[in-house]
């Protein structure tokens, strides 16, 4: 197997599609997943186990997960907001579930309709339920910390709050922690401060970065996180993304641009950029070409570009 320096994870099928009013047909979702996997992306968050009544886009969650799990070697991830979502994941044997808590108390209340403490307690129940079902070692439980770098309701978020939340999740047995700049507020200086604080609490578990490019700082923040030793990044094809309960949120960092940055810096991602660029056609067909952004797609690869 090719050695990878930096792990990139596609989240457009979850973070991107939760914002779109057009339902993307299940077959198109599966075609997107298969094509991006074939381009070399090894981890994809394919859906969200939320009530379909709330986000109809994920009404086909079970079908999408089953289809994605048929691709050998793909690490399939689904977002879960609560124990009920986790149980849906356990029933299917989804290899990785991505829980979500917001550091901002207001955002947590709006997003998952309960206090942050209640969300934290639910995570402990989810870990216990997984272990009781004999799925420890087979189902990875990651947890995201949303609004960790700023919130549209609360503004600045204290670094100490992020540090405490990360420490709590690690103590409860999170297998991975993802730090999210949900609103795209962060600058590299803040990224360094927050990731250093988090890394001091999380021991050997991977810490991933989830950046939105709402204010154009996304890739600069990636460079800052790399300096801190972060080697796991979320991104979405064509920069699709946003949060339905965070006013002003827009797209994730663009997967194609992220891979270009990393490969250009000599860091292997395992992703073939030419094939990756071609995948855009699938969401563009379903959502309209205007839904996708991206600098590399606009400008093309530099003449003589050599990947890592
Ligand atoms: N999957 C499917 N159904 C679920 C569910 C899940 N994960 N969680 C709850 N439900 C069902 C319950 O069984 C209940 O059904 P019933 O009315 O038939 O009995 C109903 O939904 C209400 O359950 P409740 O626990 O009261 O949920 P809620 O209405 O307080 O909503 C969340 C809480 C967490 C489910 C909801 O706020 C949510 O999905 N938020 C996520 C938002 C999101 O995706 N944000 C973007 C990602 S960061
Ligand atoms: Zn996001």
Features:
41% helix; alpha/beta; 308 residues; globular; binds coenzyme A
Write the layout of secondary structure elements.
Blueprint: E1 7-10, H1 12-16, H2 26-38, E2 43-48, H3 61-69, E3 75-80, H4 83-92, E4 96-102, H5 105-112, H6 116-132, E5 140-146, H7 159-172, E6 176-181, H8 188-199, E7 207-211, H9 218-227, E8 232-235, H10 255-264, H11 273-279, H12 281-287, H13 295-299
Parallel strand pairs: 1-2, 1-8, 2-3, 3-4, 4-5, 5-6, 6-7, 7-8
Helix pairs in contact: 2-3, 4-6, 6-7, 7-8, 8-9
Would you summarize the structure shown here?
The chain has 308 residues and is an alpha/beta fold. It is built from 13 helices and eight strands.
How would you explain this protein's 3D organization?
This protein has 308 residues and is an alpha/beta fold. It has one domain: Alpha-Beta Barrel (TIM Barrel), CATH 3.20.20. 41% of the residues lie in helices and 15% in strands. It has an eight-stranded parallel beta barrel with strand order 1-2-3-4-5-6-7-8, surrounded by nine helices. 49% of the residues are buried.
